[in-house]
Amino acid sequence: MHGGHHHHHVARDATPEEASSDRYRQIRRVTLIGAALDLMLGVLKVLVGWLASSQSLIADGVHSFSDLATDFIVLFAAKHGSMEPDEDHPYGHGRFETIATVILGVSLMFVGIGIAWDSINRLFHPEMLFSPGPWALAIALLSVVSKEWIYHYTMRVAKRLRSHMLEANAWHSRTDAISSVIVVVGVGGTMLGLDYLDAIAAIGVSWMVGTIGWKMAWSSLGELSDKGLGEEQLQIIREAIMQQEGAEHVHMLRSRRMGHNALVDVHVEVDSMLTVSEGHMIATAVENAIKESDQGVTDVTVHIDPENDERAPSCDGLPGRKKVLEILSRAWKDAGVDLHWYDVRLHYLGGRIVIDIYLPDAFVGRMEDIERLEEQLKKSLSDLPDFGDVHLYAALGSRRSERD
């Protein structure tokens, strides 16, 4: 582990490109295994159903084939969703998965309605209550076991990748298992002479499947309409920000979801006298803290504020540096101050401009001159509404020459 130990983060953090193609590979693998199962079961059920002349098995087989369709939707969406951001989609393609989840959720609702419809039909036409043979039973059992297995496998991957789309597809697999269970229950019921058992079971199940479909479709529609993260998640993000040195307040924290990722932008208040570069450093620290808070945030925009811009008077419309220097030169002509030689810093705070001036070393040692000058400058600015305080500093070694 020589040398690698100090850089454990290098091993862990894949680039976004690698992460998204790895994610796609995982989704593809679990979905293709599921699709192969669906195909096999579908063929098997239709074949045996045809040979054993069992209507319900053939119908069950068709259900397995319909699951194949959802597998392909998932593959398509995962492929497109993992593409790099481009000119058309600068934030990436994560919402392909969201759209797929809406489709899968809606189709789950239809599956639920279908199950209920079948069973209600059977209740009203008792002659349709079937008594399938041992073959049908064996296949139904095989189907239950294999589909329940693929459900759990898919769900595990879905949770790990935070993919709602895979969760929806896992439920599709499970509905297939469930409809086979209904067949088994129905057969058992018929043997016991309880002819209506499967129909009643089916109605209960269809309600469950329908509600799950509705929840998934609804939450994905929320994401498509830019619904933000939940309050708990935002609280975790706020705390992560406030732990950063130099971050004094957080306001205007906004978020939205993008497939399995989230985007955040936030205003962070810092000490108003920091340099630009220190403010930027705090912003970078905040950005990293948010990304590492494990809320799935991959894109952060931090706006650094020298004061709370929701409450403080606005600095809009105050003159910029060029204009300020012109005004100062005019106001101070009488004082004999030539601004070109000085390092002038402007602080835009509370709707006014505060001025710091660093004097060249010629002034150093003549403290009373500096104080007199400061008084003079303050006086000449007092009737200009845009300006606040003026501070003069004697600078050892001309800082001006250093910067040019």
From TrEMBL:
Pfam families found in the cross-reference section: Cation_efflux (PF01545), ZT_dimer (PF16916)
Signal peptide extent: none
Span of domain Cation efflux protein cytoplasmic: 230-307
GO biological process: iron ion transport; zinc ion transport
Gene Ontology CC terms: membrane
Main location (coarse class): membrane
UniProt-annotated stretches for the region Disordered: 1-22
Annotated ranges, domain Cation efflux protein transmembrane: 32-224
Keyword Zinc: yes
Compositional bias segments (type: Basic residues): 1-10
Location in or out of the cell: Membrane
Keywords: Ion transport, Iron, Iron transport, Membrane, Transmembrane, Transmembrane helix, Transport, Zinc, Zinc transport
Gene3D superfamilies tied to this protein: Cation efflux protein transmembrane domain (1.20.1510.10), Cation efflux protein, cytoplasmic domain (3.30.70.1350)
TM stretches of this protein: 30-51, 99-117, 137-154
UniProt feature, compositional bias: Basic and acidic residues: 11-22
Membrane topology label: Multi-pass membrane protein
GO terms assigned for molecular function: monoatomic cation transmembrane transporter activity
Record-stated family: Belongs to the cation diffusion facilitator (CDF) transporter (TC 2.A.4) family. FieF subfamily.
PANTHER family: MITOCHONDRIAL METAL TRANSPORTER 1-RELATED (PTHR43840)
Name this protein carries in UniProt: Cation diffusion facilitator FieF
